[in-house]
Amino acid sequence: MGHRPRLTTVPTVSSNSAPRQAPALLELLGHRWMPSIIHELGGGALGFRELRRRCGSMSSSVLSQRLHELAEADLAGPDDFGSWELTESGTSIAQHLAALVEETVSR
To answer: What is the chain's pLDDT, residue by residue, as a tens digit (107 residues)?
Structure first.
């Protein structure tokens, strides 16, 4: 599997530079398991084991990699207790994803 490019800017939903950041954000969201992780963290901070349990069959190495990618993009990070939580930008993305799912399911 090839190396994915690092995000060089914070992919925020409301940023004035969103058109330049959109491709990087969409690529990040397209990584396997990423929407599920963001969805689970959207409900509040979770420890690594609990997050892995909620995501089903994901390996711990994949979860670790995805959390690292979210941290690099400033969308999530560890809290003072070692659990993972979304940043303000990550929470905004989680809300948009939830609205998209709700809209799609309700049709």
So the answer is: 344 444 444 444 444 545 568 888 899 999 999 999 999 999 999 999 999 999 988 999 999 999 999 999 999 999 999 999 999 999 999 999 999 989 898 88
The number of beta carbons lying within 10 Å of the beta carbon of residue 83 is 15
Domains belonging to the chain, first-starting first, are 28-105 (1.10.10.10)
How many other C-beta atoms lie within 10 A of the C-beta of residue 24? 17
pTM over 0.85: no
| Gap between the Cα atoms of 75 and 5, Å rounded | 16
Please state at what angle helix 88-105 crosses helix 34-41, rounded to 10 degrees: 110
DSSP 8-32: -S---SS-TTHHHHHHHHHHHHTST
